[in-house]
Structures are given as structure tokens and as C-alpha cells.
């Protein structure tokens, strides 16, 4: 079953951010745009490259009213240890959620049950706590956060402009489409 258009399921977890442990629940995703980025594990290979790339886009995402949350099945203690020992991960200022119970990974349908790890899943969540976009990659395929920024802009545009949709390769400020009978077969 697709998670698009569904509300984020309840959870409570511990997280690490900027030298502190914090609690996070699904309520955090309401009232603002959110990006939730699942990755397999701390202290690995592709994961730090993705998380650093996400950090490089974090200010841009924040300027769009988006909060970022990374999630792995590691604990918040492991996130802190990785943050303290890796120059790459040490740059991260967004929230790093621990999911050792696998509740969040199951809620978002990214848990690899046999391994106890999460797939590379990215979710864009609107201010109502409803999932608007999903991307799932195989373990060896890293993501590009600049593409994520464009997807967020498109999701925000569509929300703010009912009756309009964003075509392929849409960029902020470019033409959109207004679905109608007149367009059928003409694109």
C-alpha cells in the first residue's frame, strides 16, 4: 500500500541534535513541512555522504520552512558517538533520530526485517502531517539533496496553488499545468 496521502503514524523516539538528546514524536511533523531521511546505519560508507549532502542543503530547506530529520535503527547514543568521531557527520545540525525499536522504520515501511536496518527512504511531509512524496533507494544508491529541494518546492507550490500541477523537470518560477479536458492528448 502506498504511503502517499497518509498521515504519519504515532511514535516516540530519542534523538541527537547539536550536543543534546531530545525526544521526538509524530507531532513534530505538524504545522511545518518536514523531510524524513532514513538510512541503513551509522559508521558506514554511503550514509555519511548522503547526510553531509543533506546538511549542505539544510539552510536552503530551512528557508523553505522545512525541518529535516534523519533516522536509522541505531540509538541516539550511537548518533552522538558518530557525530563526535566523524568530521563529516560532525557538521550535521539537523535532528538525528534513533529507532532501535524499529517502530518508525515500520511505520514508514522501510524496515529490512531480516537485517534490522532501514532502506534509504526519503519522505516529504506537509504541515498537516501527511506524506506527499516518497523515494526509496537500494542500499548502494546514494541520494542527491538538491533534487529533494526541488521536490519540496514543487510540493509546496501544488499545495499553495490548487488546480495546478508541476510537470517533469519543473523548476521554481517555470510554467505549471492546469489539468483540464482541453489538455487531454495535447501534451
From TrEMBL:
All copies of domain Thioredoxin, residue ranges: 2-157
Enzyme Commission number: 1.11.1.26
Keyword Methyltransferase applies: no
Gene Ontology cellular-component annotations: cytosol
GO function term, MF aspect, one: thioredoxin peroxidase activity
Subunit (UniProt): Homodimer; disulfide-linked, upon oxidation. 5 homodimers assemble to form a ring-like decamer.
Family: Belongs to the peroxiredoxin family. AhpC/Prx1 subfamily.
Protein's name according to its UniProt entry: Alkyl hydroperoxide reductase C
Lineage: Bacteria, Bacillati, Bacillota, Bacilli, Bacillales
Amino acid at each position: 500500500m502506498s504511503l502517499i496521502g497518509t498521515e504519519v503514524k504515532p511514535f516516540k523516539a530519542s534523538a541527537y541534535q547539536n550536543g543534546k538528546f531530545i525526544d521526538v514524536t509524530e507531532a513534530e511533523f505538524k504545522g511545518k513541512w518536514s523531510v524524513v531521511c532514513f538510512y541503513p546505519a551509522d559508521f558506514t560508507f554511503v550514509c555519511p555522504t548522503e547526510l553531509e549532502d543533506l546538511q549542505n542543503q539544510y539552510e536552503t530547506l530551512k528557508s523553505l520552512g522545512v525541518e529535516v530529520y534523519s533516522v536509522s535503527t541505531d540509538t541516539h547514543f550511537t548518533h552522538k558517538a558518530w557525530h563526535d568521531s566523524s568530521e563529516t557527520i560532525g557538521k550535521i545540525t539537523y535532528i538525528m533520530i534513533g529507532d532501535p525499536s524499529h517502530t518508525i522504520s515500520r511505520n514508514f515501511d522501510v524496515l529490512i526485517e531480516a537485517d534490522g536496518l532501514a532502506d534509504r527512504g526519503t519522505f516529504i511531509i506537509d504541515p498537516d502531517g501527511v506524506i506527499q512524496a516518497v523515494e526509496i533507494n537500494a542500499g548502494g544508491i546514494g541520494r542527491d539533496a538538491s533534487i529533494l529541494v526541488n521536490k519540496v518546492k514543487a510540493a509546496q507550490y501544488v499545495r499553495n496553488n490548487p488546480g495546478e500541477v508541476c510537470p517533469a523537470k519543473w523548476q521554481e518560477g517555470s510554467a505549471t499545468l492546469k489539468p483540464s479536458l482541453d489538455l487531454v492528448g495535447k501534451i
